[in-house]
Amino acid sequence: MNQSMINSAVTMGQIQARLDTAGNNLANANTTGFKRRDTSFSDLLTRQVDNQRVGPYENGRLTPEGIRRGSGAGVSQTAVRFEQGSLQQTGRPLDLAVTQPGYFFEVAPDEEGNRRFTRDGAFYLSPNPVDDTENLLVDAEGSNVLDAAGNPVTLPVTGDITVREDGTITVTEDGVEEEIGQLNLVNITKPQLLENAGNNHFRFPDLDELELEEADVLEAAAGTDVVQQGALEASNVDMGRQMSDLMAAQRHYQFNSSAINMTDQMMGMVTNLR
C-alpha cells in the first residue's frame, strides 16, 4: 500500500508539469511567433518482483513469472514544436513574418554573449543615441535587430521603408530608392536544441558541452526569400487541443489523488483491525 501511495504522489508531481505547460501554451496563444511546448512521459524506476516460494506454496504464487512493479510516471521531455503558424496581415511596414519553418531573425546577444533568435517580427524604430539622423530597428523588448554583418540595423529618420522577401531593406524618399541593408536570417538545422531565453527569444545551450559547433546547428540564410512585409506570424497553439490536453491532465491528477485517498482509507482499516 505504501508503494501505491508513492506511485500516485510521484505521478501527481509530474502531471503538474504538464498542467503548467498547457497553461503556458494557452496564455501565449495570442503571442506573435510563439511556439508551443509538448510534454511526454515515461515510466520511472521499474523493479522485478520474483514469485514467492515459501512454505506449502512450493510452486510459487499463481501469477505469471516476471512481475514488474513501477514507481510512477515522470516527464521525459518538454519539447518546443516549431510548426509554422498562420500569417496575419497587418499592413504595418515594420511587421515582418517568416514564411517558412526553421528560419529566424537574429537580435543582439544577451549579457553573456549568447546569440539570440526570434520568430516575432513585430519591429519598431528607436532613436539612435549616437546619431540623431538614424533610428535603430528593435523588437518589442527593445533588443537591436541585426543585419547580415552582425551589426544593429539602422534606418534614416525619414523615408518609406520596404523590406523585400529576401530581407533586403530599402528606403524611398522623394522618389529615390536606396538600399540600406540586409536583415540577418538564419536557418536553425537542429531546432530541438534551442532553449527559451525569455521575451520570445531562443538561444543555444553551451555547444562545447554537446561537442558541437555553430556550423552543426545553424547556417546563414541572409538573402533567402522567407520574409513577408506587413504581416505577422501567429502562434502555433491549437486552442482546442490544448484545452483537451489540459482536461486530460486534470483527470489524471484527480485519478491519482483518488488513489492516494483510497490507499489511506485501506491503511486506516488495517490499523483499526482488532
Automatic annotation (TrEMBL):
Region feature Disordered, mapped onto this chain: 54-73
Cross-referenced InterPro entries: Flag_bb_rod_N, Flagellar_basal_body_rod_CS, Flagellar_FlgE/F/G, Flg_bb/hook_C_dom, FlgE/F/G-like, LlgE_F_G-like_D1
Superkingdom classification of source: Bacteria
Flagellar basal-body/hook protein C-terminal domain boundaries: 228-273
Key words, A-Z: Bacterial flagellum, Cell projection, Cilium, Flagellum
Domain Flagellar hook protein FlgE/F/G-like D1 per the UniProt entry, residue ranges: 104-171
Compartment(s) where it occurs, according to its Swiss-Prot or TrEMBL record: Bacterial flagellum basal body
Gene Ontology process terms (BP): bacterial-type flagellum-dependent swarming motility
Domain Flagellar basal body rod protein N-terminal: 13-35
Protein family (similarity comment): Belongs to the flagella basal body rod proteins family.
Protein name (record): Flagellar biosynthesis protein FlgG
Species: Alkalicoccus urumqiensis
